Amino acid sequence: MAGILAWFWNERFWLPHNVTWADLKNTEEATFPQAEDLYLAFPLAFCIFMVRLIFERFVAKPCAIALNIQANGPQIAQPNAILEKVFTAITKHPDEKRLEGLSKQLDWDVRSIQRWFRQRCNQEKPSTLRKFCESMWRFSFSLYVFTYGVRFLKKTPWLWNTRHCWYNYPYQPLTTDLHYYYILELSFYWSLMFSQFTDIKRKDFGIMFLHHLVAIFLISFSYVNNMARVGTLVLCLHDSADALLEAAKMANYAKFQKICDLLFVMFAMVFITTRLGIFPLWVLNTTLFESWEIVGPYPSWWVFNLLLLLIQGLNCFWSYLIVKIACKAISKGKVSKDDRSDIESSSDEEDSEPPGKNPHTSTTTNGTSGTNGYLLPGSCSVDD
């Protein structure tokens, strides 16, 4: 074990040339980041999760009820053993041939079977109340941590001149505000890592899981080798649009469509400007070029920049989705769906008539079902 730890903490990988871990030990004159500080993130992540539960129960839920957001979920499908077996064991999206076979077996019309499969898909989806509570928590935390980051950074020299991120590196003392900001962000991402398995499932679950992993590794990595100054710029920049997204989703759940549209436009502008403009031209410029000039490259420097480039790749992917949503919104006249987060189900608008007999009902459809006019026969409407 000692050999493994010695290999892992090899100074020639983590630190610039002629710098040792002994040089970065805490003294009475200065405090530097220590790897063991990162353990603080685990109990704090648990505390954040508990605060979230209390917030959603006693703050977000009353706000949702005051806005007339109902806790009722989608309509429950009528119990049917044959269809349930097909749904759970064979397919959730029966094709036309299977639909006709089920129609003959149950003596139901095809449209009723399609409706049953849609309702069965939708009944496992979370209620609008739960979505609102989750978004309100994320909005509140994102707004707090972004506000704290801005208040902290405006007093630092490296916000105004990024070359200060590398002057006297790595002998840059750790301030109390910087330590709190870093550990708080790391704790929040750890809480998201675990809560995302119980949170509302989204279409980009895999991408978000990768994002959380990279974020945790990047925060921990930059803290250990004392790249925390430039790390604060990355964190604050990426927090800037999150509150607007959650606010837009809350407005959508509360059916304030005009406010939702306005907030989404603001979110899209901030997101694309910060992630595709400021981040590469400001942050990547200093980590790739200014640091090369002032400090010079070393092994962990390459890893750090590769992680930042991976984050930028994710930014490009999400920007593509946002532009895609904006194009749909322009064609429809409103923002009603969010491919990056949760696409709203049309189950609330489904017919509520029970499945009927089919002696006089056609078994063919025109390629649509329900009231939304674009679902394929027997398909589940998408809900991330």
UniProtKB/TrEMBL annotation:
Q: What is its EC number?
A: 2.3.1.24
Q: Which GO terms describe its biological process?
A: ceramide biosynthetic process
> Compositionally biased, Low complexity: which spans?
361-373
Q: What does the UniProt entry say about where the protein is found?
A: Endoplasmic reticulum membrane; Nucleus
The TLC domain sits at 130-331
Q: Which GO terms describe its molecular function?
A: DNA binding; sphingosine N-acyltransferase activity
Keyword Lipid metabolism among UniProt keywords: yes
Parts of the chain that traverse the membrane: 38-55, 179-198, 205-224, 260-282, 302-323
Q: Which residues bind DNA?
A: 85-128
Recorded GO cellular component terms are: endoplasmic reticulum membrane; nucleus
Stretches for region Disordered: 335-384
Say where the protein is mainly found: endoplasmic reticulum
- Which reaction(s) are listed as its catalytic activity? sphing-4-enine + octadecanoyl-CoA = N-octadecanoylsphing-4-enine + CoA + H(+); hexacosanoyl-CoA + sphinganine = N-hexacosanoylsphinganine + CoA + H(+); eicosanoyl-CoA + sphinganine = N-eicosanoylsphinganine + CoA + H(+); docosanoyl-CoA + sphinganine = N-docosanoylsphinganine + CoA + H(+)
Protein's membrane topology: Multi-pass membrane protein
**Homeobox domain spans which residues?**
83-127
**Pathway participation:** Lipid metabolism; sphingolipid metabolism; Sphingolipid metabolism
Alphabetically list the UniProt keywords. DNA-binding, Endoplasmic reticulum, Homeobox, Lipid biosynthesis, Lipid metabolism, Membrane, Nucleus, Transferase, Transmembrane, Transmembrane helix
* PANTHER family, per database record: CERAMIDE SYNTHASE 6 (PTHR12560:SF43), LONGEVITY ASSURANCE FACTOR 1 LAG1 (PTHR12560)
The protein here is known as sphingosine N-acyltransferase
